[in-house]
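During data preparation, a discrete fold description was generated, as reproduced here:
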Amino acid sequence: MNITTKGALFLAAIGLLSVAPLTASAQTTILSEGFESTFPGSWSVGDANSSGTTAYWSDVDIRSFGSIPAAHTGNWAGYCAGVGHAGTALSPTYQNSMDAYMSRSINLSGYTSATLTFWYIIPSIEAGSFDKCRVYMDSTLLFERTVTVSAWTQASFDISGYTGGTHTLDFEFVSDASGTAEGWYVDDILVTASSAQPDLTRKTDSLSDLNPHAGDAVTASLTVTNQICSGSSVGAGAFHVGFYWSTSPTFSGVSPFFEASVSGCSANSTVSLNQGITISAGTSPGTYYLGYKIDDEGEVTECNENNNGIFYWTVNVVPPPQPDLSKSKDNLSNLDPKAGEMVTTSLTITNGSCSGGSAAAGAFHVGFYWSTTSNFSGVTPFFEAVISGCAANSSVPLNQNITIDPTTIPGTYYLGYKIDDEAEIAECAENNNGIFFWTVTVSGSVAGGNWATLPNAAPGPVQLMLLLSDGTVMAANQGGNAWYRLTPDSHGSYLNGTWSARPSMNSTRLFYSSTVLRDGRVLVAGGEYGTGAATAEIYDPVANSWASIPVPTSLLNPANNSPNTGRRQGFRFCLTATFLYRQTAPPQLTAL
């Protein structure tokens, strides 16, 4: 994988690669005495009590000496009265008034930790704590036993407090002036020491995004700790953290794609690393593993080399953000229209999220289909409605009026629509655009219809009715200035429609000129009767208000008489001239 890097900071969640069990830190053997070779060698032995029979430590062959069945290991062991014992070789006893010692120096210079261990057995000893088995480091008593111990037993002591110099280790057996027994045997005396070493490992880590897109940048934030190693620690010099990318959590055969340099880490301290990583733009969607290994190039000698990693995160590379257009809801105003009737389709189109995130959709078309079968086989759209676009995670409405062909034979049909019908938008899902449809029952023809009385009467006498572009009817009160609104029911039926009031005109009129303009507004002028004979005004259904339109006196002057009728000039229901309404500021009427 081609990955680029840069420094950054962020926090998230992790996965951990299993590693081998920890191993003990490297140790140096300072002393190992199993009594199997020449003795006393470097040991000093003797009896410091001159008042009794001289007796002191020596090595003995357990196969032919004493009552114990065997040495701890090998055949030989150390015995407190190996020289000068009483009794026989197979049944020895120590002497009265003994102060037998077996001592030697041990050099712990340059070490930071040390341990003393040995095995011992005491087949018999004078009861009453009169005779004593002791071990000293210099003048400090580490060990004392005054009772029988019938089996080989290990004693262990942390002597790290004596590191940094040379000290005397002394095994001492002391007896009083009366009463003896077999006494004390020792075997496998061992002193080990270790020098301070760093121990680098992971303390915390996080990845800023576990679900990036190809081409995205993520940040790996690590805290590396240099922890205590065998009771002490030392600073680590410069090292590298290697980063790995793999399709397998084993990272088998994978080399690091980047080595981040770390200047070092003090003893018992931590160091932070924030590494920016860019996922290659060509990476296919899927599951990957982003890992890292501390001291990847083996530059630091550590007491534990098994806790450096590879640690890793499981990364799910997702596809790029895309739109996903589909139906949210839809409605058809009349499922039982007549041939020639108009129905309204009301759609809400949603742009949902894809697995890689959501994105805005540009302009697209919604195609409308009419068919005798619900599979729309071989049918092409009869109309394409234009949608300007749809924002990410948003929706857009579409209200489309459709007139049923007047020649349609009564029966069952299917009115369908398909979103992005011309495939202008690349979507993450292309199978949820439709065709969605309604089952429509055409039940006759409007042309062959009959008159029917409205069950809901108008609020007053009606003289003029106009059909507006929003499907409502605008009805004028006869001879006055009031207007009413007839609104069809949810199925588009005016028979079951409801009446309500519209704003009144500024003037009263009867037998006047009127028209519905192309933009949906209504223009009225004059009147054979009423106060508006020489005036004009316009109704805006969106603002739901009337506005007067100035009439130029050069066109019509109500102060003058008409040369044709001798009456005052004014608009009449039957005009002898044609006029043009111009949408200017202010609006104007001009003669044609």
Observations:
- The radius of gyration is 53 Å.
